[in-house]
Write a sequence for this structure.
């Protein structure tokens, strides 16, 4: 057992808590009244940006995600603000050019982000290099991420090597990201112990409660020397979210791992979130309890709910079980990618096509073809040769870093969106999500000047759309 130490907590309520439990729909206005109280707790950090929040703010909430960051930063004066960055994917679902990654990181750190958790769905370190370098250059804490999954090729030596490689790149800490709740307590003890021996940086653990093991996993990880664990306020914990902060604080109280956090303050915060949560019942996840199916299919809770929703829209909910069983088959054939954004969508979509069409790989989405061609990065294991032949024929996958093939993205974005830019960050919003940002920026400008016009019509004659590879 590692030397006893005070454990710190990262609170995920403002990001992953509501992303996991009600589709990232929480509005900034519902966060503001409790911010000062959150700031008084003594958390290691507050995860409040990144993941799906950026897209959702513009797409569904009519909010500017940059304004959310700035507003929260003004009110949080003592606690570090943390965000989740998908490496070269930034906050989207494909790789972006280096200039977009670098400028995005620079602007968000200037806006108030202190800790940047950087991950890649394939654990391809090439897809994390630019973001890590940019984070360090901006003066923020770069947290390198080991995405945890289970397969014949995902073993302890692989995770240790990845952590060592990330530390060599200059990361300030390592996060173990268990997005599906697969990490068991004793496996966590073994993994954290190995990492603590291999690297001399803090270790943080992020688990989802989907399988029901996460709180037990945290305890064993803490005993092995884990420095920080991710929790959520109890009303936005459990299910597909993180373990509840209050339970862990109570469990560790009076032990050498005592967090030192005040349960009464945490209870007051929970009372506030309990009331807020009722506003978002319509977006509640289909399953909010323990789902041990994740241990068989390794499908994260959010992916399960999306799968059920897609099948319902197609009138094919009776194929739900078949699709669940098809996902691990597709995952194996595609080289065991972890089921986290964007590879969870890639594998899940192909599995649905295979089942609904009654013939496997009869239809292959562009994203799956690009994955097999190497445009998302290096698969953890070789792709099944017969499946590869079906998908890309005689084409040869690329072997270089995917972003090396991309032209700079900012000049074209500025040209296409220029007259609707009110601040430099608007260009980045457009570079990441052209269609969503176009609509958002158009409506914002229309509201400001009182004119109803089409951004597409106004810009098309003046400038070409920026280059975005499939």
């Amino acid at each position: 057992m590692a030397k006893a130490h005070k454990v710190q907590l990262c609170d995920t309520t403002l990001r992953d808590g509501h992303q996991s439990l009600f589709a990232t729909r929480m509005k900034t206005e519902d966060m503001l009244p409790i911010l000062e109280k959150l700031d008084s707790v003594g958390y290691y950090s507050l995860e409040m940006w990144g993941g799906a929040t950026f897209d959702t703010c513009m797409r569904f909430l009519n909010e500017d995600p940059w304004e959310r960051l700035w507003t929260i930063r003004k009110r949080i004066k003592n606690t570090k603000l943390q965000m989740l960055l998908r490496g070269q994917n930034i906050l989207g679902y494909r790789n972006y050019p280096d200039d977009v990654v670098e400028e995005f990181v620079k602007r968000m750190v200037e806006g108030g982000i202190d800790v940047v958790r950087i991950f890649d769905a394939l654990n391809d370190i090439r897809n994390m290099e630019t973001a890590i370098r940019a984070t360090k250059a901006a003066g923020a804490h770069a947290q390198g991420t080991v995405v945890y999954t289970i397969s014949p090729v995902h073993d302890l030596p692989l995770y240790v090597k990845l952590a060592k490689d990330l530390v060599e790149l200059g990361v300030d800490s390592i996060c173990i990201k268990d997005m599906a709740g697969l990490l068991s307590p004793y496996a966590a003890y073994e993994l954290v112990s190995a990492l603590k021996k291999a690297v001399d940086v803090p270790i943080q653990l992020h688990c989802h409660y989907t399988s029901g093991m996460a709180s037990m996993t945290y305890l064993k990880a803490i005993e092995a020397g884990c420095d920080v664990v991710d929790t959520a306020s109890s009303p936005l914990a459990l299910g597909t979210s993180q373990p509840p902060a209050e339970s862990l604080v109570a469990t560790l109280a009076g032990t050498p791992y005592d967090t030192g956090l005040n349960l009464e303050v945490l209870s007051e915060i929970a009372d506030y979130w309990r009331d807020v949560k009722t506003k978002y019942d319509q977006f509640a996840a289909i399953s909010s309890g323990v789902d041990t199916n994740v241990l068989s299919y390794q499908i994260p809770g959010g992916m399960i709910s999306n799968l059920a929703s897609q099948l319902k829209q197609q009138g094919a909910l009776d194929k739900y079980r078949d699709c669940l069983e098809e996902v691990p088959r597709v995952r194996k054939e595609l080289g065991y990618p972890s089921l986290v954004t964007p590879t969870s969508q890639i594998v899940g979509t192909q599995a649905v096509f295979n089942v609904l069409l009654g013939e496997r790989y009869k239809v292959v989405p562009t994203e799956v073809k690009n994955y097999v061609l190497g445009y998302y990065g290096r698969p953890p294991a070789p792709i099944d040769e017969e499946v590869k032949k079906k998908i890309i024929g005689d084409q040869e996958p690329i072997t270089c870093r995917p972003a090396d093939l991309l032209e700079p993205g900012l000049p074209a974005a500025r040209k296409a969106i220029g007259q609707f830019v009110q601040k430099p960050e608007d260009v980045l919003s457009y570079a990441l999500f052209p269609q969503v940002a176009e609509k958002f920026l158009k409506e914002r400008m229309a509201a400001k000047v009182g004119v109803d016009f089409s951004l597409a019509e106004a810009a098309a004659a003046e400038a070409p759309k920026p280059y975005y590879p499939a």
